[in-house]
Write a sequence for this structure.
């Protein structure tokens, strides 16, 4: 039971990371793809949307990792050993992206320097979520074997399979869609720019469907345990609900109901990650590591849960208030 | 890992120190309503924001790196000391949120609430430092678990956090952050005051930074002495290496510098102070102090590195203490911010000393703990990742950190150059 609660918190943190940090990555992708006469207006809208809350978004990922190594230490060591290479690559992506972003914000505002940092920022925004999708996908492949606490399949198992790669592309498309949808709903952005993001949201949202289908197809071979999960009794409901949200998001984008579209997109991402977690359950690394055999002793789990609950009670209201403040029109004049 | 941490610790120290300066300055502004203090806290908050952003990135890397480099260590230790890391996560979260309020809220929050946000940033920065240091202290003085037949049982994460080394390490590290930030910031502003004595912006900044540094430095020395006595109890081999003390003896002398030679167990060219070591480590000049000879050779840390690093830290600490006394004395004499030419020059020169001492101090702690990763429980070689004997990931992270270091240095410098101008304008309006 304790394991389940901790794993639940971990899933929630992961979902928050996807809907906040994921949109940041998507913003970076659109930054790189900004074209047309309003390219720099697009970039400004993106920078403004990412700017103030960027640091807070990163915390979700740190939280996921910290919960993992406190609550499921064997899961953490298995993960970091077997997927050492992609995770190191991902860290490179995170560092380069962060550095480029900070530079863009605080370095001189010359066109040439800015565009160089923009390119790096955009490229890292593509690279990092791709690797993240790949890594999550690799956990489901069942090709990573950890027998008697020892990794037997080397450092290349799982993450180079078609299924994992399809997951990587899925993450890319999902985050691009999410970011474009958020940007259409930003009232402070230029109306023309919002129009352009509406189109982008529409087509990136539509691209999601075929990629999702490829993920599903490759999972039969590439992630049999997950495929089985997705054919259980609850799966049709889950897939149906996800589909409803996806269609609702696209429809409200079409009808220019942007606030609604944003909610639907968040719902879609939540259900996708929630569904993935359910189909993984109770495995962390398929097939050998589960939340039960990787768990820390009960006392650690219990204390961790206290800390998580207390943190949630204190931090959520402040976070909410922070978002509220930033939604105001005035741009800070001082700092 | 040593490298990443050596890098991260600089942000950590600034991340503890700068918000404190920023909150003090805004507090003074609230009382005096002099605009120069408002400008100062804005300036410092911008520095804090850059460091925070880079700190977040380097912290993310660290969280993963623990597992990427030492899966064996994390597997054993995660359940025991994951707790302080989770708490650090929350402290960091709090800091991120309130720094957001602080940066965006200059015109939107009431001045007092705004200042409170700054205070919360300072407190949560300090707390994140405290939490992780307890994790490090646990590696030095493992507690809160039992080993039965090679298996870890009876885990108690609270007892692990409150291990016997926590108190002295936390105290010493928190003070170190104040000392290092205080003197580094003072050095920058002393440099500008040297150029222009009338610049009230830099004078005020110098005053605040110096006050923080000068109050913390003497306390730092006292807490260092306390640390040394705790180490003498908890890790006598580390203390012996710190002092290059090979032989167990009563009335042991203190040896400064020298070239410790573990083969002949001597320390030629050292400056020797009779009975000094016994006096310092027990406050009794005749006490018996345990030497390295009591331990099997394979349990010795690298004596030279530890001894030299220790002398470096103590040397830097002593220099900063003398400087604090001089600065305090001349501030008392002129009832204001001291601006003697030689004092300012000395302050500029002493800027890096605090950070040098921090790095040296961590080398003492970490290298002094070797060959153990968890003192007396797990050896470092048992903990390492099996991947390519660590060379590739280690190399990769090293490059990453050199890059990040460059980013920060460049940006902070740039930030200073850009913001030079408004400062001068401010002087004219203020004076
Ligand atoms: C501004 C920085 C600074 C200064 C001036 C000093 N130290 Fe220090 N010292 C540190 C910064 C530091 C540190 C980096 O913060 C360490 C590393 C781990 C820790 O807890 O603090 C440390 C560790 C450390 C340890 C090892 C603790 C352990 O391994 O558990 C001892 C014995 C001392 N110090 C003693 C001293 C003495 C006797 C000083 C007096 C002159 C001194 N330090 C000045
Ligand atoms: C919570 C804090 C810390 C943890 C968990 C930690 C962990 C470790 C571990 C596991 C090792 C052994 C592996 C090795 O030898 O490379 C180590 C060594 C080392 N650490 Fe730390 N460390 C911490 C803080 C620091 C800091 C702040 C520094 C800053 C300079 C530092 C510097 C070093 C160095 C130089 C070594 C190498 C020692 C040697 O191999 O001789 N550590 N640390
Ligand atoms: C060994 C593992 C460590 C991990 C995983 C880690 C993780 C992190 C993370 C994720 C952050 C957030 C970024 C930020 O606030 O800037 C952070 C910041 C911080 N860390 Fe660490 N850290 C470690 C070691 C240390 C050590 C040894 C200290 C020592 C005192 C320390 C003190 C701090 C402080 C004070 C901050 C806030 C700094 C700021 O606000 O800029 N950390 N750390």
């Amino acid at each position: 039971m304790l394991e389940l609660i901790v794993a639940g918190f971990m899933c929630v943190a992961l979902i928050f990371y996807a809907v906040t940090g994921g949109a940041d990555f998507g913003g970076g992708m659109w930054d790189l793809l900004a074209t047309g006469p309003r390219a720099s207006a697009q970039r400004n809208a993106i920078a403004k949307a990412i700017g103030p809350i960027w640091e807070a978004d990163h915390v979700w990922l740190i939280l996921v990792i910290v919960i993992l190594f406190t609550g499921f230490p064997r899961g953490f060591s298995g993960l970091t050993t077997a997927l050492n290479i992609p995770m190191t690559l991902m860290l490179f992506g995170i560092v380069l992206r962060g550095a480029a972003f900070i530079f863009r914000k605080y370095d001189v505002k010359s066109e040439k320097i800015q565009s160089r940092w923009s390119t790096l920022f955009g490229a890292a925004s593509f690279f990092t979520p791709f690797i993240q999708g790949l890594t999550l996908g690799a956990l489901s492949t069942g090709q990573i074997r950890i027998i008697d606490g020892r990794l037997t399949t080397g450092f290349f198992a799982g993450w180079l399979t078609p299924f994992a790669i399809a997951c990587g592309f899925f993450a890319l498309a999902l985050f691009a869609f999410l970011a474009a949808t958020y940007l259409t709903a930003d009232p402070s952005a230029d109306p023309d720019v919002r129009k352009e993001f509406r189109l982008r949201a529409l087509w990136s949202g539509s691209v999601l469907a075929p990629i999702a289908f490829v993920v599903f197809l490759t999972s039969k071979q590439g992630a049999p345990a997950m495929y089985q999960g997705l054919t259980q009794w609850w799966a049709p409901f889950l897939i149906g609900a996800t589909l409803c949200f996806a269609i609702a998001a696209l429809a409200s984008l079409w009808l220019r109901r942007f606030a609604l579209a944003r909610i639907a997109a968040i719902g879609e991402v939540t259900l996708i990650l929630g569904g993935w977690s359910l189909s993984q359950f109770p495995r962390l690394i398929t097939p050998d590591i589960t939340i039960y055999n990787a768990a820390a002793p009960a006392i650690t789990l219990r204390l961790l849960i206290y800390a998580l609950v207390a943190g949630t009670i204190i931090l959520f209201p402040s976070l909410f208030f922070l978002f509220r403040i930033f939604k105001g029109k005035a741009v800070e004049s001082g700092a | 890992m040593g490298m990443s941490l050596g890098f991260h610790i600089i942000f950590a120290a600034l991340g503890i120190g700068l918000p404190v300066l920023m909150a003090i300055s805004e507090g003074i502004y609230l009382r005096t309503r002099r605009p120069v203090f408002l400008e100062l806290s804005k300036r410092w908050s911008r520095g804090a924001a850059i460091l925070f952003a880079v700190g977040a990135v380097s912290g993310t890397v660290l969280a993963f790196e623990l597992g990427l480099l030492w899966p064996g260590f994390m597997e054993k230790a995660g359940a025991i000391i994951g707790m302080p890391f989770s708490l650090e996560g929350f402290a960091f979260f709090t800091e991120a949120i309130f720094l957001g309020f602080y940066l965006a809220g200059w015109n939107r929050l009431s001045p007092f609430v705004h200042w409170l946000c700054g205070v919360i940033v300072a407190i949560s920065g300090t707390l994140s430092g405290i939490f992780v240091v307890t994790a490090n202290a646990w590696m030095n003085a493992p507690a809160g678990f039992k080993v039965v037949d090679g298996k870890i049982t009876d885990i108690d994460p609270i007892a692990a956090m409150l291990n016997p080394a926590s108190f002295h390490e936390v105290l010493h590290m928190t003070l170190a952050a104040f000392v290092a930030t205080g003197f580094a910031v003072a050095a920058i502003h002393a440099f500008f005051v040297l150029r222009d004595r009338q610049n009230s912006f830099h004078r005020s900044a110098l005053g605040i930074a110096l006050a923080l540094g000068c109050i913390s430095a003497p306390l730092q020395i006292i807490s260092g002495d306390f640390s040394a006595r705790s180490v003498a109890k908890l890790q006598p081999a580390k203390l012996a290496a710190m002092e290059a003390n090979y032989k167990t003896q009563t009335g042991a002398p203190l040896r400064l510098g020298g070239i410790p030679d573990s083969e002949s167990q001597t320390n030629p060219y050292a400056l020797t102070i009779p009975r000094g070591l016994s006096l310092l480590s027990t406050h009794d000049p005749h006490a018996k102090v345990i030497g390295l000879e009591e331990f099997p050779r394979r349990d010795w840390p690298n004596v030279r590195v530890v001894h030299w690093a220790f002398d470096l830290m103590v040397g830097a600490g002593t220099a900063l203490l003398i400087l604090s006394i001089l600065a305090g004395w001349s501030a008392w004499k002129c009832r204001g911010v001291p601006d003697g030419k030689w004092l300012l020059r000395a302050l500029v020169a002493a800027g890096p000393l605090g950070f040098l001492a921090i790095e040296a101090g961590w080398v003492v702690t970490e290298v002094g703990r070797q060959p153990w990763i968890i003192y007396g429980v797990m050896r470092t070689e048992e903990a390492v990742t099996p991947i390519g004997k660590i060379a590739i990931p280690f190399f990769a992270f090293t490059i990453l950190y050199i890059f990040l270091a460059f980013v920060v240095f460049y940006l902070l410098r740039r930030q200073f150059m850009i913001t030079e101008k408004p400062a001068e304008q401010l002087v004219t309006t203020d004076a």
Strands of chain A lie at 146-147, 150-151, 283-285, 289-290. The CA atoms of residues 13 and 60 of chain A lie 6 Å apart. Residues B 1-2, 5-6, 9, 70, 73, 132, 135-136, 359, 362-363, 366-367, 370, 373, 380 surround protoporphyrin IX containing FE (ligand 2) (CB under 6 Å). Chain A touches chain B through 66 residues (CB under 8 Å).
